[in-house]
Amino acid sequence: MRTEVKSLRAPEPSAAELSAEAERLFAAGLADLGYTEQDIERCAKLTWKINRLKAERRAVIPAHVYQRAEIIHGVADFIGDSYRLAKLCAVAESRSIVFCGVRFMAETAKILNPDKEVWLPAVEAGCSLSESITAADVRRIKALHPGAPVATYINTSAEIKAESDVIVTSANAATILRKLFSRHPKVIFLPDEMMGLNLAKALGKEPGREIIIWKGRCIVHDNFDSQSVALYRKMYPGVKILAHAECSPELVSMVDFVGGTGDMMNYVAKSSASSYMLVTECGLGDLARTRFPEKRFVPMCRLCPYMKATGLEGILGVLERPAAPQRIDLPPELCEKARRPIERMFELAEDGVKS
Length: 355
Ligand code: SF4
What we know:
- By secondary structure, this protein is of the alpha/beta class.
- Helices cover about 45% and strands about 15% of the residues.
- It is built from 15 helices and 14 strands.
- It has helices at about 15-25, 35-55, 70-75, 80-90, 105-110, 135-145, 160, 175-180, 195-205, 225-235, 250, 260-270, 280-290, 310-320, 330-350; strands at about 60, 60-65, 80, 95-100, 115-120, 150-155, 165-170, 185-190, 210-215, 240-245, 255-260, 275-280, 295-300, 300.
- The strands form four sheets. Strands 10, 11, 12, 13 and 14 form a five-stranded parallel β-sheet that branches.
- The radius of gyration is 21 Å and the shape is globular.
- Iron/sulfur cluster binds next to loops.
């Protein structure tokens, strides 16, 4: 039987500790992102307490790159996309994981770390894409296309992963699908319609015949329009435009680079251009501004309400008084079933041998 986690109360920081913490946040670049002195002081009080309790709880805090800057710079132990976070959680020495991201990511962390407590501070942090499909939908599609392997984007619940043959990310989807197509005439791709159409185009496969695509959408990336991209291109000559792979094929055809968040950051790091437009959630632009202060980032982004549901108060709350709804509980057999397609992704994406 699961034991309840006892409540802890964070001590209050002294004036000197608070001032040092505020200085740390200031040096991380929060003021450059528009945080006022009062904002930084308010954040400092919370981040100081969170970092104290985190150590006492032997917890790690992974944060997705779309999280608020005060989380990324104030309390996160590591940041990244969902794939990187899942891998880092698996090697982190901790008793528990306080996941700053959305539910499907926390579930992926639990699948790969079944013996650790995984906590999601904001229980309402869902995802339009993840919620666009049910396990019954996947079983129905499989019955309609017998023999076709199911490649599923990592932005899905544990139930959907458990029904899949292999998980993919925006960074490795093309590589893995290419391998699947070398063995199968038809592949099912779930649940992102836009990414599916982009992959179909890149791989020269016919949607509906060779690649079966579900109609899920990300409410953030689905909202960017290609006319704005064309307009910005004219307004900012020389700007490098980078789009996330969840954007529409029309928009993707107009940009300089398409990929996942990690690929976009790598592109900026290696490029010598002076200005960039990151067509994705606003958190990535904030991160890029602090990481590359010498480069200019043209604002063109959308906020994800699910990603922004997590705040410092919620993280402190889960460390002080963890509540049952915040704990990610998955049946062991579901974890086991969902882990296999993730491990298959690790094999297919990394060793380049098996298909
Ligand atoms: S940005 Fe899109 S895919 Fe990511 S959590 Fe938000 S709705 Fe889901």
